[in-house]
Write a structure and sequence with these properties.
The protein has three helices and no strands. It is mainly alpha-helical and 77 residues long. It is elongated. 10% of the residues are buried.
């Protein structure tokens, strides 16, 4: 039986960047190690996709904030 934690049951869209990144690292490690059945591998892959999307959302948001801050700085000069 696969080890299940509260992190893997939390919807990806409710995770912080760090939580999603750390869980994604674990998912990739488990997939690379192998030894899982097809169904578990597919579940891990789907979770990994959701986690990667969540990380990208955080990064996109950070980029927008930086761009906005740079725009504000340029307006003040």
């Amino acid at each position: 039986m696969p080890e299940e934690t509260t992190a893997t049951t939390t919807p990806a869209d409710q995770l912080s960047y760090e939580q999603a990144r750390d869980e994604l690292v674990d998912v990739v490690r488990r997939l690379e190690t192998g030894g899982t059945g097809l169904e578990e591998a597919l579940t891990l892959w789907e979770r990994g996709e959701a986690l990667a999307d969540r990380c990208q959302q955080w990064l996109d948001g950070a980029r927008e904030r930086l761009d906005a801050a740079r725009g504000s700085d340029a307006d003040e000069e």
